[in-house]
Amino acid sequence: MAAKTTLNAKNLEALGAQRLAELLIEISTGSAAHKRRLRMELAGNQGSTEVAREIRKRLGSIARAQSVIEWHKVKAVNADLETQRSAIVTVVAADDPKEAFDLIWQFLAVADSIFHRSNSNDIAFTETFHQACADAGVIASSAGIGIDVLADKVFAALQDNDHGQYDPLIAEMVPALGKDGLARLKSLLVQWSNEAEEKPADADREIFGWGGNGPIFRDEIYAGHRQQTARIALQDIADAENDVDAFIAQQPKETLRAPTIATAIADRLILAGRAGEALEILDAADHRGRFEMPFEWQEARVETLEALGRGEEAQAYRWQCFEQSLNGEHLRAFLRKLADFDDIEAEEKAFAFAHSFPDVHRALAFFLAWPAAAEAAKLLSRRRAELDGNLYELMTSGAEMLREKHPLAATILLRSMIGFALDNGRSSRYRHAARHLAECAALAPHIDDFGDAQPHDAYVAELKRQHGNKHGFWSLLT
């Protein structure tokens, strides 16, 4: 009997078409999303032309909408967008690629409306429109869209990329654009970036904001934004053409020494087989010390040294970077280069170094991330007096990780947060501190030896002696 009532397609078929239709009408009542889905299915039964008509109508409604998309509506709105995008790709494109191309472009155009109305995290929407960019590239190739038309449409889209919805568009359109299409797009972008901005009369200039040198005018902001947009697009074209020199040419001279820009250039030079130039670019970047640079810069420098055949130097640099930062990725890369058994000895050396690292919190984070729970427990036993209970994210995640096999270490972390809240009178954290104390009580029976730490009852007695007047905290324990 149970098998007959399980919700699956075979069992539902037994209800018959009429009963299923009645149930669908009942279930969709009051749900606009369900009704739209059913209409789309009915349209699909009539062919791709009817589906295209339904999609076009729905996209028009989305573009005209004015209501704010609150955080709890993001999932539903994005599901609606995904339904339209999927229908374009799977139904319309298979039957009429040209119509599908027009529809996917209309789909991309609703991004402005969506982002302007949304006041929450836009990651889901961004991912949907980025996928639509990929779809547009595939559909454009199958539809045989002329390269001039396609280049013009891509150019127009990039001019209106305020929310990053078109960021992957050039890369996705490379197969459809081809060499000639990319050349036309590049020409349009260069011409646009070089256009002289018509400066309005002083009396008509709109002030956008104020800076140290006086007013900042809106026309100046637009000109700067236009040039930056064109420059980024030209960089994407350079990458599509594997032209590292063109990529470098698009970097303003004042940014060439920025570590992030130097890293981006070096990565491309390495791929082009120009590791010597990559090392020069990296070492010319502005920095206080090579081991204080961003991780990506350090990683690029290691790859450059390897490409130059300077493996021993690369290994030494990996270890120095680890000693500077306790970044486990540097250590993992170092260990991978070692022979069997040598890596075990090196790991032990790294653990010993981490135990003596000046910043106990960075050492703790390293052991937790490695993961090396036993080492983290030893660290906490030796250096608990150095803990800052205000770092509640680290303390909370550490306590959660250690509680099962290292209850004393978890207790030490919990006590650090309790102590910070009470010692500093942080009443907003009393509720959390009370919960942490209850967790300590639950862990206490599992601790065979507290060592030089106070047993739980003694610890609570000392808390009452020092903070007995903090009634807001103690009232939460009753």
Q: Quick check: average pLDDT?
A: 89
Order of helices and strands: HHHHHHHHHHHEEHHHHHHHHHHHHHHH
User: For the largest beta sheet, what order do the strands appear in spatially?
Assistant: 1-2
Tell me the structural class: mainly alpha
Distance between the termini: 50 Å
**Beta-sheet strand percentage?**
under 5%
Overall 3D shape: extended
Radius of gyration: 31 Å
Number of helical elements: 26
Unreliable stretches covering 5 or more consecutive residues: none
Question: Helical amount among residues, as a percent range?
Answer: over 70%
Query: How many strands?
Result: 2
Describe the main β-sheet briefly. 2 strands, antiparallel
Structural description of this entry:
It is built from 26 helices and two strands. The protein has helices spanning 2-5, 9-13, 17-28, 32-46, 48-64, 74-95, 97-109, 111-117, 123-143, 147-158, 169-194, 218-240, 244-249, 259-271, 275-283, 295-307, 311-325, 328-336, 342-355, 360-369, 373-383, 392-402, 407-423, 430-443, 456-467, 471-474, and strands at residues 207-211, 214-217. A hairpin with a 2-residue loop joins strand 1 and strand 2 (214-217). Helix 17 (311-325) packs antiparallel against helix 18 (328-336) and helix 20 runs antiparallel to helix 21 (373-383). The model has no long low-confidence stretch (mean pLDDT 89).
